């Protein structure tokens, strides 16, 4: 009781206090930066020193595996360019920011990117965070290549926002076509979550099947932090569906499939990008995901010479197997760097125009950007066999 | 009818885990009058430790659980040791200290295990039982059985052993307890380590049901805390009732209100707390703040 040293708790409060001061000063800096309009226009061509590019993605929290993949893909592309001498002899300086999958944190980071004069941003993988950051980046004319796929991104109508993959509408209309037209399924059940991704998937898929004249047998909505799905799955089971559409992120989708099998549901599941990932497969278990139908622009590392080369480089750099999200970010980073090269290291409006004009043959397909910032409008259908996503035969 | 029963079964299995989390919260509160905000993150560490010994070192699941409990009990001792100088001096700083420890534990988990979590396969491979069309997972039965044993064990410890009685005495009046020769520090340390062990039990058991990553604590903590409040903070039977109630409530709310289920769960919770602020089994004697 005589000891009065209290190292841990005090450090705790001190860090909090410091964090508050930091945030406050960062805000102040950001405000001054905003209050000087045109400032960023003045140095559209800082022609010396490294080119500063930010990667913003979740490195902690439930979406951290997504953020990790995205960062690895983007960094691989940047490292390759730097090895070849960068852009016009200038190195590309890549810095990672952790948004924790949280829109508020993302907005703070956006202000920091403005005040620290970043030329462009890669990320985030979370549509909600990207949408939150959008207005700040648009005002400061910082082009952003996002991995989000929500149609809400397009609705933002920012000329500085570009997608490195298809939108939910593309994913889900391809999927709906396959399920209804090719497979002839008429009883389709839906389970989606009410987060930004799940809501986007819900609306896009529902519209797509309805356009094809099919009404889902049941439409279950769960929350993003739900862990137990007995109620929804029992209702789905009672409608005896031929296939179940699932619109939620990797881990939750995995839990849903796992619990569905335990309840004796044998119908296959169908979904978009998250359903092709190893996290989804691991969470549910290999046997449970057998036959899952996946709509994705990047099915496996073996589809083309380019993807084989990418996968080998990824393996060399990180000792891990490449997957869709790394490939998306790799394509996005390459598009950005190509645009930087063709515009001789421009920034702002000029760089955004250069990105829009870039024709890029990537891992996900041929990118041709339109006014909406969407560059790719095709996905292919794959199936999970023995724990691996393979192209549909 | 079948749907109702199925929902009940699903709610009970997670409810048993919430009950375990609530018990850990309650035990520390009971002896020290302190809410340990690091509790949920200790459960997360326990889940990671159990999954590591089970999947990476290939220990049997039960052995992995025991090792994980030992690890977190040690963490509990460390936390208590660091907070001890503040006891009876600065209560608020103790609370903030536990919050700080929670943040530290999350950071440590990311340092050790990385950002990508891991899926834990069920240690009970048997197919789910079919009881009149209601499917009951065999692993869920195991979880409920272990939780029940833990409840009985803790109740027995508190009521029938000398150390347990000493802890109760400290809870009632720590000055009088010191006067009769009870070592208050040791009693608190014991409460903290048992609480942490219970957290590991909850975390380790929930691993194969959910997905183990650094944010697992958040998922268990809020519901576990609500369960402890609902049952009456500091009460062991209250923790059990609260845990099962929150689990089942959550499950039914999910069925009826779909996307709004969290809102409904906590509205019902708030209403219950307003009607009975001390919770179902709550008593107002334990307060050392």
UniProtKB/TrEMBL annotation, chain A:
Tagged with keyword Transit peptide: no
Superkingdom, taxonomy of origin: Bacteria
A GO BP annotation: amino acid transport
UniProt KW keywords: Amino-acid transport, Signal, Transport
CDD domains linked to this entry: PBP1_ABC_HAAT-like
UniProt keyword Signal present: yes
Signal peptide range: 1-35
Gene3D superfamilies named among the record's database cross-references: 3.40.50.2300
Domain Leucine-binding protein: 50-385
Family: Belongs to the leucine-binding protein family.
Protein name: ABC transporter substrate-binding protein
Species in which this protein is naturally found: Streptomyces liliiviolaceus
Lineage: Bacteria, Bacillati, Actinomycetota, Actinomycetes, Kitasatosporales
Automatic annotation (TrEMBL), chain B:
Subcellular location: Cell membrane
Amino-acid biosynthesis recorded as keyword: no
InterPro entries with a match to the protein in the record: ABC_transp_permease, BCAA_transport_permease
GO CC, alphabetical: plasma membrane
Membrane topology type: Multi-pass membrane protein
This protein's record includes keyword Membrane: yes
Keywords, ordered alphabetically: Amino-acid transport, Cell membrane, Membrane, Transmembrane, Transmembrane helix, Transport
One MF term in the entry's GO annotations: transmembrane transporter activity
GO aspect biological process, one term: amino acid transport
TM segment ranges: 6-27, 34-55, 61-79, 91-113, 141-159, 189-212, 224-248, 260-279
Main subcellular location: membrane
One of the Pfam families matching this protein, by short name: BPD_transp_2
PANTHER family cross-referenced by the UniProt entry: ABC TRANSPORTER PERMEASE PROTEIN (PTHR11795:SF450), BRANCHED-CHAIN AMINO ACID TRANSPORT SYSTEM PERMEASE PROTEIN LIVH (PTHR11795)
Family under the similarity heading: Belongs to the binding-protein-dependent transport system permease family. LivHM subfamily.
Name recorded for this polypeptide: Branched-chain amino acid ABC transporter permease
